[in-house]
Amino acid sequence: MRVVIAMMKHETNTFSPVPTPLERFGKDGPAWGLDALAAYAGTATPMGAFIDLARAEGAEIVTPVAAEAWPSGPVDDDAYARLSDAIAEDVAKGCDLVLLDLHGAMVTESHEDGEGELVARLRGLAPTTPIAVALDLHGNLSDRIVDNADVVTGFKTYPHTDMYETGQQAGSIAFRALKGGCRPAMVWGSRPMLPHIMRQGTADAPMHELIAAARRAEEEGALAVSVFGGFPHADIRDAGLSVVAVTDGDHEAAIRIRDEILDQAWSARHDFVYRSEPAAAAVARAARLDQGPVLLLDHCDNCGSGGTQDVTAVLAEILRQGLEDVAAFALHDPAAVAAMAKAGVGAEVTLPLGGKLAMPSIGRAGEPLTVSGRVKLLCDGEFVIRGPMYTGVKVGMGRTAVLDTGKVEIVVIERHHEPWDLGCLRSLGIEPTAKRFIMLKSRVHWRAGFWPVVRHVVECAGVGVTTSDYSALTFSRVRRPIFPLDSDATP
Ligand SMILES: [Zn+2]
């Protein structure tokens, strides 16, 4: 038995000015062939689960590529062609099963639906071969991907701590189908709604209740039921909330499950609307909290959703209000890192921090912040994730510097990295539990590692292309009317 297993992941923020060339897909670009197998075997990812399943079956495993890039603007056509060609070439050689670890919100320069395009192409090459796909909870589903796959599953957690289980679910169903053990009947559907990312955490209502309904349907016999919150910052026709239901041959049951959960989501649409607190008021409120660690969440500039990670609005407010004993993660600024590397550990420096990239989609120029401090640490920025999200994966932040102003330790990195694992600070010798304040550029994924160690959470609305203020963004391609852009939208 020959099984093709591949990963091609990108959450595309069409409002982001950050480019997405091939080199962005991994520390040294994508992992090809056996390097892909070596990089992801044993990891808590869908690809890791696919590899385990195929090994248990004694299958021949072919891994054309494993590629994941931090969210950013539309994927370069050339990068998309290289990745999808590699997968298509191995499928074209003949195989018994295709297992794909995709995101679901990839937009390329030429395609609104990068994954749908890939899966349709593979279906054309292998018309009768089962294709199973594991997606991110933020996938924007489409006919193209669902019509051309046999099984689609999505994460049930945000932060995404069930990546392995999601791959295991899709892969197990595909292997069973291959052996005649089940006949997947899959339907999908959506409602015209764009839930705010800040309201999609699965510990909170209404996402918690929707996921519970999906799990209940699985306990009652459905093979897989997935709720996708969608990714609103991909301004494409099909962006938004959707549900995929897979049953064992019972098409009517799949439709019923899908529609019940979609109706439940539509009824809860007002609870998916996020209302933000301006940074100045939020930081002042945080300063009055007497017990730490207090998390200051800079959610409008999250590189995990396509932010430039170099907007200094919240950091500037923290410095202006004089907060002390703060760790700030992180500013993306390769030039500042280079300047600090040149100055050396222990040197006193004054430099322009951040603000290197303009953000035309929200009408903002880059605004560097001049900061003085001591270079406390320089390192290669590599560490292994302890979990519970992406456990076992080695990540690289590029060369990393810590600039200590005396009150704030500012982490400055060469490569984008969202702080979801305590290792991002501990690998730099900063103990998060000992800090009074921790500033993180994240939206919900920080919860994976940091929630157990922070006492208070203060959400600070700064500036950036991951803003939850939809009035700051010009949507031109998403289908209209859609809630909450249009309050009169109907299901
Ligand atoms: Zn996601």
List keywords for this structure.
491 residues; alpha/beta; 2 domains; eight-stranded mixed β-sheet; seven-stranded mixed β-sheet; 20 strands; globular; binds zinc ion
Textual characterization of the structure:
With 491 residues, the protein is α/β, with parallel strands linked by helices. It has two domains: 2-272, Response regulator (Rossmann fold, 3-Layer(aba) Sandwich); 279-467, no CATH class. 27% of the residues lie in helices and 22% in strands. The protein has 13 helices and 20 strands. The chain has helices at residues 33-40, 46-56, 77-92, 114-125, 143-147, 163-178, 207-219, 251-267, 279-287, 313-320, 334-343, 423-426, 447-450; strands at 2-9, 31-32, 60-62, 65-68, 97-102, 131-135, 151-154, 184-190, 224-228, 242-248, 294-298, 326-332, 348-353, 369-379, 382-384, 394-396, 400-404, 408-413, 437-440, 456-460. An eight-stranded mixed β-sheet has the order 13-14-17-18-12-19-11-20. Strands 1, 2, 3, 4, 5, 6 and 7 form a seven-stranded mixed β-sheet that branches. The chain is globular, with a radius of gyration of 22 Å. The model has no long low-confidence stretch (mean pLDDT 97). The structure holds zinc ion (ZN). Zinc ion is lined by residues 136-138, 160.
Strand line-up of the largest beta sheet: 13-14-17-18-12-19-11-20
Number of strands: 20
Runs with pLDDT <50, length 5+? none
> Overall pLDDT, averaged?
97
**CATH class bucket of the largest domain:** Alpha Beta
The fold-level CATH name of the largest domain is: Rossmann fold
**Assigned CATH superfamily of the largest domain:** Response regulator
Label the overall shape: globular
Structural class: alpha/beta
| CATH architecture field of the largest domain | 3-Layer(aba) Sandwich
Task: Give the DSSP E fraction (strand runs of 2 or more residues).
Answer: 15-25%
